[in-house]
Amino acid sequence: MKRFKAKFGEAVREAWLDRKQAILVVDAAKLRSICQFAREQEKFDMLTDLTAVDWPKREKRFEIVLNLYSFPKNERLRIKTHAADGEMVPSVITVWPAAGWLERECFDMFGIRFEGHAGLKRILLPDEWQGHPLRKDHDILQQDEAWVHENLGIESGQ
Amino acid sequence: MDEPQNPATALPVEMPIPGADEIVLNMGPQHPSTHGVLRVKLKLDGERIEASECIIGYLHRGVEKIAEHRSYQQFAPYVDRMDYVAAVSNGLGYCEAVEKLLGAEAPPRAKVVRTILTELQRIASHLLWLGTHALDIGALTPVFYCLREREEVLKIFEKYCGARLTTHAFRIGGLQYETYDGFEHDVKRFCDDFEKKVEEYEQLLTGNRIWVGRTKGIGILTGEQAIALGVTGPPLRASGVKWDIRKAMPYAAYDQYQFDIPSGQNGDTYDRYLVRMEEMRQSRRICLQAIENIPTGPIMAKVGKVLKPPPGEVYHAIEAPKGEIGYYVVSDGTVQPYRVRVRPPSFINLQAFDTMARGHLVADVVAIIGTLDIVLGEVDR
Fold first, then answer.
1. What is the CATH superfamily name and number for domain B63-380?
2. CATH code linked to domain A2-126
3. Do B228 and A97 touch (CB under 8 A)?
4. Tally of CB atoms within 10 A around B147
């Protein structure tokens, strides 16, 4: 963690341990170079998971969470960054190809756009679907009624 | 580290208008070999696959959204419905993640019983994989044998908690039920018989010329590619990376038992088959050691009826039969989780399909889907 701070200075905003898990919060602009450093110098060679959490009351509502694993060190590291609605987040697909589907899922569920991801489209929901269901302001019963009506020929899926 | 051969794996495959020599073929979503509702779009040159794209989501039920509207305990049965052939493993991961969030720990007795049931579940899951995988490739016999032994495992589950498939066997903090009279005996009898049974399967397949011909050299994934694509579980080990969370970051009671991690060299379908066969033997070994000495004592930690974990977040992963299943749980201090993210092994392993399938024949697609051991309930959640 100290090495990340030393290398990137202010771009690493916070770093702490929560229940023995190392967490770094970084600037979205520097995300890709920090990830490159994590993979090459710090040997975090696997992107275990990439996801997001929605905090609608915050200024930058989306928290993008990357869970990394290092085989040589047998350690996990969590890198987080924040983005406002509609803001572009740098894609880490060039660092870890595993990000491909994970970023698509994030886009599908939260509507977060990743810059540099050539095939960013929905993955679990149909391509024409409207809305991003894992946003907090998306009601659990809400769905794309028009899509359901047009494609399934029924009034509602509920 | 070398880049995977096809970085396009992560990119969607553009399907151009088919030229004179190329056709685009749709496999699924209702195809018997896709093990559920997976649709694979294949770009073919003759019978050879030039590119492929998996289209998923047909079984999406919004599990992660449901989690935000249930209490911690109420959500536990839902995780069984993701990887529905390995419900016990899913449940273990979730319960341990929430326990970590609470700062609680299950009592030793609960941990050992959890380990036994999870290893039995691994055997059951691998048996179902073996049976259907062999069936897909054209070997009809193994599926009957495999389901016969799987039945024995399911009977133990049924006697333990009343359910066979979506068991909800564990609770946050430990176990709901004490083991029934004769539990150790049942497990021991199953394990004693099982050694011969694995040999029986191996006699049917391991040296079988058709089996070897259909699986050797098919769907090769190198260790570097597997790591870069986030592949975990038996596919990773078959590629020569000897890594298992049970050893690397022990959970439940795994640190008390002796077992080996099998690994392969070639990363092909045949090696993945051998790795899973050996894993079943190792699971049997763990079960036998565990029933020898199940500690006495309580089965439930004092966690209270209403769970309100302190605000914070936790990522906890276990070695499920399919790979690393991880739960990223965020608490805001209320009775409902603020966010539950499931890191689904099947979803991430399926991403490697394109890398594995390129250059092979259409008939091999069936073998490659089978060898990844995906469950669509978990891919789509």
1. Cytochrome-c3 Hydrogenase, chain B (1.10.645.10)
2. 3.30.460.80
3. yes
4. 15
